[in-house]
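Backbone Fold Data
Goal — fold tokens
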Amino acid sequence: LSAGEHPARIVLRTTFGVLLGEDDGRRWSWMCEDAFGYGRPDVWDPPVAFGSPGPDGVPLLLGIPGGLRRTSDACGSTAVPEVGTDYTADLSATEDGRTVHWVGSFLDPSTRGLVNRVRASDDGGRSFRTVYEGSPGVLFLTMEAAPSNPRRVYLTARAEYALQSWNPAFLWRVTSAPSE
């Protein structure tokens, strides 16, 4: 994964951790797993996305089971408060990093079932708002924004269908699942 406006910055997820290259991959350094909370044995290959450049640098977002972490360096991070402790399933960002999407789930205490959320950021991953909440009993797995329209988001789920947003209000429609 490389940062669109800063293509020399590359992140590589591996089974053994996350590597950061700042010079087109000529040199690599390990990111501090414990600073992000993904160094636990049950967290492998965390979802990652680059936000857009700003006064705080180019934020790197890392999804962990208990939320979302943001960093501009390799060994310190802060929790993204809008995500709280929700489980992070996937992240997706436009090439320039201005629009970032987060998908995950939380345990609804009233029903004791999983409920999915989709959150969007239009400021390069510095703040998020909830754009969708629902689909109990379905677990969202992956997400990708369409390059032609960052408001069109495709989701896969552990179900017999896929969901596609089709307008800026993030209304969803079911699309047929690909056949094998």
In short: The first strand starts at residue 2 and ends at 3. The mean pLDDT is 77. The helical segments are 33-36. The chain is about 0% helix and 50% strand.
